[in-house]
UniProtKB/TrEMBL annotation:
<feature type="domain" description="Tryptophan synthase beta chain-like PALP">
    <location>
        <begin position="39"/>
        <end position="359"/>
    </location>
</feature>
<dbReference type="InterPro" id="IPR001926">
    <property type="entry name" value="TrpB-like_PALP"/>
</dbReference>
<dbReference type="Pfam" id="PF00291">
    <property type="entry name" value="PALP"/>
</dbReference>
<dbReference type="InterPro" id="IPR036052">
    <property type="entry name" value="TrpB-like_PALP_sf"/>
</dbReference>
<dbReference type="InterPro" id="IPR010081">
    <property type="entry name" value="DiNH2opropionate_NH3_lyase"/>
</dbReference>
<protein>
    <submittedName>
        <fullName>Diaminopropionate ammonia-lyase</fullName>
        <ecNumber>4.3.1.15</ecNumber>
    </submittedName>
</protein>
<keyword id="KW-0663">Pyridoxal phosphate</keyword>
<keyword id="KW-0456">Lyase</keyword>
<dbReference type="GO" id="GO:0008838">
    <property type="term" value="F:diaminopropionate ammonia-lyase activity"/>
</dbReference>
Amino acid sequence: MLILNTHPDHDKALDPADAETLSLEEARTVERFLQHRPNHEPTPLHALDNLAKELGVASIHIKDEGFRLGLGSFKALGGSYAVIRLVLEAAGRKLGQPVDISDLQSPAVRKIAETMTFGCATDGNHGKSVAVGARMVGAKAAIFVHSGVSDERVAAIAQYGAEMIRVEGTYDDSVAEAERVCRENGWTVVSDTSWPGYERIPSLVMQGYTAMLGEALRALPQPPTHVFIQAGVGGLAAAVAGYFDIVFGDKRPKFVVVEPERAACILESARVGHPVKVEHGEATIMAMLECYEPSLVGWRVLSRKAEAFMTVSEEDAAETMRRLARPKGSDPAIVAGESGCAGLAGLIRAAGDAEARAALGLDGNARIFLINTETATDKARYEAIVGTAPDKVLETA
């Protein structure tokens, strides 16, 4: 399913707060902070030339965030960045002087960080990022996980010293519980979704994502004409759409938001013209995208800067995982988790539909940019879907 953006705000300027969050100046700060992270190096940008020829477009490039900071997903950039910023700001207030990233490991800053606890709800990747950020600065982390988060993903977060708190229900239930418990205990919520009165910290999380976009634009041979990005609550999609709008202005690429059919809160919001919460039904394999209510900040950006909204099926995602693992021709093998390849699944679905191709202008001149947002964060589930262990796929890459 694909619908075009008919919102009255479409093509209007970004809200001033969002324009500041996603500005080039702030993006440079994110990249400067990133230089102080262990294991930092730019993630690969792959050209899928054979697939581009098959789909009848000029080029396809995919940024592979499965290698980001050894944490397996793009979210390594968001939650931990927000934690670091919040610790530095708290230290600056208490010490009465400016505090920068180079001061992060100083005894005075560490002493302040030790008094702080950061909490969040997660499907897996965001919680890992917050836990790693807290561990880096010497703070504590409390991570809330809902019923659908696998034991493997819980263990992957717990290894960083976080307190793990199970919550019955969906991701949205865990968000509400995290907010309640953190408020009662005086902890700081570092959420990747926003709600009325809670916008700045999710904006910092979004800001952290801009680092990979600067890397991608420096590596791309030409600017993209189309971007297909997957969405859960919409934070990543909004970060990409807003940042590219700032960089390219009226020459920005056409932006398509891709969601699972079973959790399409942003598409439904676009359909009715305002943010809505959709009903929870059968779970999707795209667990990192299983969100039922959009981020208000994310929606504010996407209602202005997305050209279209679409959904993909469970089999679309599974088949795209297999296709990336066993590519044709000279295309590289890529390990993409169930949610990681949803943007590409959307492109393949749109390219195979004459009406969607025409609506989006997907022709022989189209240059597509995508992000593989995660590697196999649940290896057993990946092997069950793809039929090959992720390590074996990487051996052929």
